[in-house]
Every structure is written in structure tokens, then in C-alpha cells.
Design a protein that fits this description.
The protein is an alpha/beta fold. The protein is 24% helix and 27% strand. The protein contains 7 helices and 17 strands. The strands form 4 sheets. Strands 1, 2, 3, 4, 5, 6 and 17 form a 7-stranded mixed sheet that branches. The protein has a 5-stranded parallel sheet with strand order 8-15-9-10-11, covered by helices on one side. A 3-stranded antiparallel sheet has the order 12-13-14, with no helix packed on it. Helix 1 links the parallel strand 1 and strand 2. It is elongated, with a radius of gyration of 21 Å. It binds flavin-adenine dinucleotide (FAD). The site of flavin-adenine dinucleotide has 36 residues, from helix 1 and helix 7.
């Protein structure tokens, strides 16, 4: 079985940043990813908020990070998924679709995926008006007509955020009552350019090259209407890719399945760290994933090379 100092699961922004710091610290570092390295950053059509790059295509930023990581000597195995892990002992083992590895420390950086609403047009217009992240894409819709779908805190926060950018924001919720905190709902709905449509469901997102309109169904009257919009922000939750880590005993946040970390990216298991969107960190951005990856790698270094540190 191959032995490594540090294995990183996931070659997104967090995993690649961790790889750079791990390899540069002299750790024999392996990064495993079930897809091609680069992670979710590669899915962002345009990134305008990563310092040093005022405007860069997500694919280009992901490629630059991957190249940089490889240059430091970290080994990246693309298209090799981690299927299970055994994390309780001093030496940890990782089983993948291709083999089995042993490691002293491990960083889980498997990211998260946004939940979809599953309507016609959602996939087709993803990145062309359909978005899952207002902080990422909101500024592209300055002065435009936007729609937010959802009934929880993130839908209300997104509505508030967009109300300062867009011409108007319509918040569509399929129930009468919001799940979000009362104060947040009140705040969002108090904005002059925010409208709310309760008991309403999206049926279809329409357009040509970009989003042009949305077909809405009033669940009470059963009437459908087609209204013009430039953007649809889907805010119906996010799911961390944490299944294997949870099965291996990593503790989740209370009431959820994001991995619980402390300020130094430690999980509940010694030698097991987590970074990026898979964790319960409140912000999910490239910059925060990078920062967490760096901290995790430096903490892993301390764990591996400074045994007194473990006490
Ligand atoms: C469309 C879109 C636009 C965005 N725009 C911006 C933006 O403009 N600015 C910004 O800052 N942020 C943006 N974001 C958010 C940002 O991309 C993420 O917050 C960030 O990439 C998270 O990095 P990560 O390393 O934690 O996870 P990811 O980048 O998702 O990487 C996780 C990696 O783990 C791999 N993986 C998962 N499970 C396994 C397994 N079992 N075995 C092996 N590998 C596994 C995945 O294949 C993936 O490559 C955007 C997100 C999306 C979806």
C-alpha cells in the first residue's frame, strides 16, 4: 500500500491551496479527485471577486490553481473517487475507485452542491441567468429584473443582497409562511423594490441565449402567468459532499451534514482536518475555501512533524 504524509480529498480551491502549502512544507502530499482537478471554481462562468484577478473565467482560475499546485510537487490523481476511509487509528487508510492508500494526516475538501428545483430550463440556463450564488453572480444583474426562489434564510439574505443591486427582486415561495427568521423576512420584504409571491411555484424558465421569462403557477388559484425576468436565483439549500467522512466518524454540525470544524480546521478526529464548502464555515467562496485549505495544511504539518503538538 502506498504511504503518504498527507492525503487531501478534493482538488477544488480548498484542496489545491492545501496541496500547495503541504508540498511546500515538505510533506509527501497526494490529492484525489473524482473529477478533473479544479473543483467548483471551474463552473463559475466569470469570477470577479478573487483578489488579484479583477475578471477571470472560472476555468482559467481553476487551471492556474491546479498548475501552481502541481509545480510545488503535490501529486494529483484525477478521476479517482474516494469510496471509504478509516480514520480512527494513527495511520489512516483511504480506499478509492483505483486502490488503497495509507496516510498520517488527511484533509477533507470535497465541497458541496447546490440543490436544484428541477424545472424545465434550469439546467439549460445555468450560468446564463440561472444562478445559485448571489454574491458570485448578483453584480452581473445590476439594474435588471431578478427572481429569487426559496423560503429559508438564504432566500431572504439573497433577496436583501440583490435589492441593493437589481432593479427589482421578486421572492417566490411555494408556501404561505417562510421558514426564515422572522426579522430577516420582515427586513427583506420591507425594501421598496422587493415583491413577494407566496403559494407560488416556478414551472419553467424560458429564454433564448439568456433567461427572458419565468412561468409561475399560483398553487391556490391554479393559474399560470409568464413574467419577464433576467435572472433566477435558486436558494433551496446546499448539500455538503460529506457522506464518506460522516461514515468514517467525522462529526457533523448540529442538525446538518456539513463537517464541524474549529477555528484551525480540526475535526473531532486527531489528524483529520476539513476545509472549504464541505465544512460548516458560514461563507462559501473561492477565497474562503483557499484560506481554510491553507490553515488545514499548516495544521496538518504541525500534527505530522511536531508530535508534541498533538498533546
Ligand atoms: C456556478 C458557480 C459560480 C460561482 N462563482 C463564484 C465566484 O464568482 N466567486 C467565488 O468566490 N465563489 C464562487 N462560487 C463558489 C465557489 O466556487 C466555491 O465556494 C469554491 O469553489 C469551493 O471550493 P472547495 O474546494 O471547498 O470545493 P469544490 O471546488 O467544490 O471542490 C471539491 C472537489 O472535491 C471533489 N470530490 C467530492 N467528493 C469526492 C470524493 N468522494 N472523492 C474524490 N473527490 C471528491 C469534487 O469533484 C471537487 O472537485 C461559485 C459556485 C458556483 C457553483
Amino acid at each position: 500500500m502506498e504511504t503518504w504524509d498527507l492525503i487531501i480529498v478534493g482538488a477544488g480551491a480548498a484542496g489545491l491551496a492545501a496541496g500547495i502549502y503541504g508540498a511546500r512544507s515538505g510533506l509527501k502530499t497526494l490529492i484525489l479527485d473524482e473529477r478533473m482537478a479544479g473543483g467548483t471554481t471551474a463552473e463559475a462562468p466569470l469570477v470577479e471577486n478573487y483578489p488579484g484577478f479583477p475578471q477571470i473565467a472560472g476555468t482559467e482560475l481553476a487551471d492556474k490553481m491546479t498548475l501552481h499546485c502541481k509545480k510545488t510537487g503535490a501529486v494529483i490523481h484525477d478521476v479517482e473517487s474516494v469510496v471509504s476511509m478509516s480514520l480512527g487509528d494513527e495511520k489512516k487508510t483511504v480506499k478509492t475507485s483505483r486502490g488503497e492508500y495509507e496516510t498520517t494526516a488527511i484533509i477533507i475538501a470535497t465541497g458541496a452542491h447546490y440543490n436544484e428545483i428541477g424545472v424545465k430550463g434550469e439546467k439549460e440556463f445555468h450560468g446564463r441567468g440561472v444562478s445559485y450564488c448571489a454574491v458570485c453572480d448578483g453584480p452581473f444583474f445590476k439594474g435588471k429584473r431578478t427572481l429569487v426562489v426559496g423560503g429559508g434564510n438564504s432566500a431572504c439574505i439573497t433577496t436583501l443582497y440583490l435589492s441593493g443591486i437589481a432593479e427589482d427582486v421578486t421572492l417566490v415561495h411555494r408556501r404561505e409562511k417562510f421558514r426564515a427568521e422572522e426579522a430577516l423576512v420582515k427586513d427583506a420584504l420591507s425594501k421598496a423594490n422587493v415583491k413577494v409571491m407566496r403559494n407560488t411555484e416556478i414551472q419553467e424558465i424560458k429564454g433564448d441565449k439568456i433567461v427572458k421569462s419565468v412561468v409561475l403557477l399560483d398553487l391556490k388559484t391554479k393559474e399560470t402567468t409568464e413574467l419577464p425576468f433576467d435572472a433566477v436565483f435558486v436558494q433551496v439549500g446546499e448539500s455538503p459532499n460529506s457522506t464518506q467522512a460522516l461514515e468514517a466518524g467525522v462529526e457533523p454540525e448540529e442538525g446538518g451534514c456539513a463537517l464541524k470544524i474549529d477555528i484551525r480546521q480540526h475535526t473531532n478526529i486527531p489528524g483529520v482536518f476539513a476545509a472549504g464548502d464541505v465544512t460548516n464555515h458560514p461563507v462559501r467562496q473561492v477565497g474562503t475555501a483557499v484560506g481554510q485549505g491553507i490553515t488545514a495544511a499548516l495544521e496538518a504539518f504541525n500534527y505530522i512533524r511536531r508530535p508534541y503538538y498533538r498533546k
